[in-house]
Design goal:
By secondary structure, the protein is an alpha+beta fold. The protein is built from eleven helices and ten strands. The strands form two sheets. Strands 1-8-9-10-6-7-2 form a seven-stranded antiparallel beta sheet. The chain has a three-stranded antiparallel beta sheet with strand order 3-4-5, covered by helices on one side. A hairpin with a 2-residue loop joins strand 6 and strand 7. The longest helix is centred in the first third of the chain and has 18 residues. The N and C termini lie far apart (49 Å).
Amino acid sequence: MTATARPDVPYFPPEGGRFRLTLGLKVLPESDWIEIDAALASDLAEKRRLLDSAPDAVFRMLPGSEPAQQEFIDHLGRHLLAHHGDRFTGTPERLHVRPTGVDVVPDPASPLRAAASLIQEDVLLLQRRDGAFHLVAGLLAFPTRWSLAEKMGRPLAAIHAPVPGYDTHLARPMDRLFDRLVPGRLLWRANWSLLDDPALHQPGGHGAGDAGRTLTADTIGDRLWFRVERQTLSLLPETATAVFTVRIHQATLSDQVRTVSQASDLLASIREMPEAMRHYKSMPGFLTALRQWLLARTETPAQG
């Protein structure tokens, strides 16, 4: 099962036409923490299907992470009742989801699993162990080319090791950022990818040289997907747990890139992107067709 494309993807990270490997975080109001749209019921159904059919791929936890999971679920429940009362009723201990008609009661043995029946975001919990933040629990139904199995229990540096330039440009800023997290202060950023598959659950595919190789300038607009991860970062006060959420928005290239400015910005961003990053994002197979498609939308028509 795949999610329906959302032509109104609310973010366009290549805006400005620059590519910089930076954190680019902004402060986020508490009321805007969780995003909910008309696809809530279908996305939750897909999460529950994945959790039933491939539980180890979607949910993992380390022993001892239960208090952090419970604190997160309690905090999430209070937030949903306070800021999304049109869709959630009840108590944090027993939330009723109006769009699905389901009552959600977290399991004390693995409370984070309940998030699959509540929100469209995926959730990752990190705690300080041996001087660094490690991934201790995760509900990851909609990954963009990575898996919980390969990251669980690892520190930030090891989690991001495959990203070209992370060790030289982002490792220290990321460590400092996590060290300075304080409860009550939410941060967010948007990250983008181009994929030849609309499936929400994509645990592999980084560095795939043949991705999208059959696409042409005539077909790429309807068969390449512009995928945005809207990421948030916060800190739970009682367990000092860092909470990382990821909300997926996606649309076809044609639905997302509608203006000359957007086409120019995306083209410029790809031009500035280091070759190693283009390979990491599995772009070589469709890069020529993509450039042709974008150029056709940035060229000024000849005047008669």
